[in-house]
Amino acid sequence: MSKLPNTMPMTPAPGRPAPCGRANSALLLVLATIAALGGLVLVLTMLDRSEHGESAEELNLFCAAGLRQPVEEVVAEYQRRYQVPVRVQYGGSNTLLSQIEAGGVGDLYLAGEEIYAQQARQKGLAREILPIALQRPVIAVAKGNPKRIEKLDDLLRDDVRVALANPDQAAIGKLARDLLESAGVWTKLQRQVTVRGVFKPTVTDLANDLKLGSVDAAILWNATVAQYPELEAIRCNALEAGTARMVVSVLTSANRPPAALRFARYLTAKDRGLGAFTAKGYEVVDADLWAESPEITFFVGSVNRRAIEDTVKAFQQREGVTVNTVYNGCGILTAQMKSIRDKQSGGFPDLYMACDVYYLQNVKEWFQEAAEVSDNQIVMVVEKDNPKNIHDLKDLLRPGVRVVVGQPEQCTIGALTRRMLENEGLYEGVMENVVSQTATSAMLLPAVTTASADVALAYDTDALAEPGRIEIVRIDSKYTKAIQPFAIAKSSEHKQLARRLFQALAESQAKFEAAGFGWRMICPAPGFED
What we know:
Layout: H1 21-51, E1 59-64, H2 68-82, E2 86-91, H3 93-103, E3 108-111, H4 114-122, E4 126-135, E5 137-142, E6 162-165, H5 171-183, H6 186-196, E7 198-200, H7 203-212, E8 217-221, H8 222-226, E9 231-234, H9 237-240, E10 244-251, H10 257-267, H11 273-279, E11 283-284, E12 295-301, H12 305-319, E13 322-328, H13 330-343, E14 351-353, H14 357-361, E15 371-383, E16 403-406, H15 412-423, H16 427-431, E17 434-438, H17 445-449, E18 455-459, H18 460-464, E19 470-473, E20 481-488, H19 495-506, H20 509-514, E21 518-519
Helix pairs in contact: 2-11
């Protein structure tokens, strides 16, 4: 920011008259005051614009100090490629979390251990969480291990100066305390550190003290040790149980969520940011390929449309991505999938949300473990006031009753209807009265509302969308329920993006229930953790 001009009025030297007399001096004072106020207004306006995201696309990242080396490389490369300034503040994970909570500002938070990001989300400070890599605590010593330290008990020797990270400031400190408490040595080691060693706020401080010979041993991340050629790691069973997952989260205070998420995707892309972490010895997670504006394809059974459409639109806007959503009967969608596989052509979906598990089973070999999202019921839909007096499935057998059902090879409602009627011993008889079979569930109700049929076997959710025009007749059968699963394709190059879309759907229970669905989600669902 440029400096404000010097607007203070000039004071004449003692004993000399003002150059233009009192009137001119007064005028100059007024003009100077106006100028100063104008400059102040300009500064405040710039600050206000900055606070509301109208300045240059600058990002502010709070980052765990131990991750400085790979993060600096990624930030430098991102700034070079996209001319987006990224300001980074380093510190202990918990210290940074406290600063974020107190200040209410910032775009991204990179924690050394996922627990801090989850705490940020629980406090309403963060939304999306993107995984980066795993790291494990080890005993770190100087190269050559001059003190011959081999196990935890050696840290309690009188000739060993030990350094630990403060558990209330750094992720490594908290995890080390938890593990050492489980091993029954925390109290003794804490006393040893207090007397002969030191507590430090970050893992980097520990590594530097060890490098300089100020201490003989410290508990560090294995990846941190790998970044210091002067150090080596000693593994021990008590610490082996501790694995921390580093994650980056997008803060709710982010002025431009799409810009923050774009950097987060770059940082966590297998062919971009994660390369820097791999080079520094981190065990990176399974990650997405980089794309400036990624596109994913989402195959969706038609019955789910009203429940998910708004959520998908909001997800696209927040992430700055494209979700190519294809709604159709599940039989048609699975046939497309099989055709794509047979021809080995592109276009296989990244995600699939079926109308029922029945149609996911047909293609399960191409998808990861599924999560059950919601459920629905098959009902009989009749004209207003139910002129044909249809109250039971057996009424569909009466001569002259015109029935419309889904086509079982094309849509889930058709397959489930056939299963239900077969199990109730009514299939052959009802089919004699069927006047039409539709390709999707969405086409069933129009047959009733246009008087083309007397009754449709349809989803409860579709019927609820037509209040006042039709009536719903409940079916007394244990075969009426449809369960909607969500799955991510094994072949998808954007599994993490797909998981975030799943997370958005998992947070939209109210939309599903408003559309008439029952809610089945258990979070986190297997295979869908952040």
